[in-house]
Structure formats: structure tokens, C-alpha cells
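Reviewer 2 asked us to include a model.

Predict the structure of this chain.
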Amino acid sequence: MSVSCYFGLTESGKSWHVKHHVLPKWDRKVIFDIAHCFDGDVVLTNPGDRTFLEIFRRFIGRSAFTIVIRPSRTSSDEALFNKTVHLACSLGRTLGVRVDPAKRIQLVLDEADFVCSSHYQSKELKHLVNKGRHDNVDSHFITRNPNSIHTDIRRNASKIVTFFLNNAMEISIFRSNFSSKFAEKIQHLPKYHRLEWTDNGDIRIFDEKNKVYGNFSRNSPEISPKKRGVSRVD
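Predicted model (C-alpha cells):
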């Protein structure tokens, strides 16, 4: 299972990065698109239960698809997202027990703080984060502030990508888990540049052309020897 998080100020490049550098690697995608940043084979605005069933029947067994679901101004973001999780997991379960990781469903949640908080998540979101691997679903969470999403998401993240952040509370996670040097780097990242941490403990810094210009191993003195993952901030 892969849980990925993407943090950064508005227009820092996080949604653009997911759209142009992450999703093209995958064939099966379900996107909850609150900010209207994505497009796909089908775009649904505030679909009902019957529409979800029709979409499931339409795309079951397809080797490639991009389903975009957008809540309307009058809908409940959380309720609609919970149905989106059910759709993605239902499609994922039809793929079988031992599916190639490259063929799994990629579920993207843009503006993740609209459907959860640091101390609240629905049972559907909890299932996605903790047991999505059993349903062949990988998840990608995009949000401005790392402190605004549930701590469970950060604990389970196998990849964390950070764009420009400049608020002390926003970067406190990275200062406490890595070092003040990396927190300072985050405050000076140009637009579309990013710092990327993976669960092997390594950190890389990319430019706007997706080229690495900083590479730090888990044994690097820049990385805190005591804390190498991004956990909750109390």
C-alpha cells in the first residue's frame, strides 16, 4: 500500500505536480476534485448513489480510466468523499488478491482538509488509510497545511512531498522530525520546487523540471538521527 501526502501553500505547485508528474504513471485513477484542478474520462458533479453504481458497472474490468468527482456548493464534501472511497475500493477488489502494484487504483483527494481534521476522520477514510492495500487502492492526499489532516494519514504515509511553506506551525512537523535545516529549506523553496521524503529515510529536493538537486540519505548529518518519519505534532 502507498499513502502519499502533498503539502504546500496555494499555487506552490502541489496539485500541478500530482497532475503532471504523479498520475501519468498510473492507469486507473479516481480523483475527488474539490478545487477543480483535474480532468478525466468522466467528470461527475455531486453524483447520487445510482450514478456511482452506473460508474462502477461502466468501468469494472477496464485497464485504464480516470474518474473525476466534484462536489457542488450544496453537497456534503465528506459524504460524497465517503462514497468515492466505496467506489474506488469496490473497483479495486475486482482486480483480484495478488494484483501487480502498477495496476492498483490511485485515489486522489485534493483539499483533504475539507473532509477531515487533525483529530477527526470518517470510518471510510480510516479504512482507506489503514486497509486500502487490501482493496488494491493507493491514496494521495493534497492539502495546504500538514497539521490540518488527520494524524493517522501522516503516520501511514510512505511518501511526503512538501512545497513552499512559510508558517511556523505548518513547518513544525518537519523541524521536529528532521531538522531545522530542512524546515528552513521548505521556507525558501521556489514555486514548483519540492522536498520529497520516502519511508526509506532519504530526502530529495527537486526543481520545477522534476530534476533532483539535493539528495540526503538517512545517515546524512542534516537528518535528525532520532526521528526519521513524519508523525503527529501534539
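Residues 224-234 have pLDDT under 50 and may be disordered. The radius of gyration is 17 Å. We have added this to the supplementary material.
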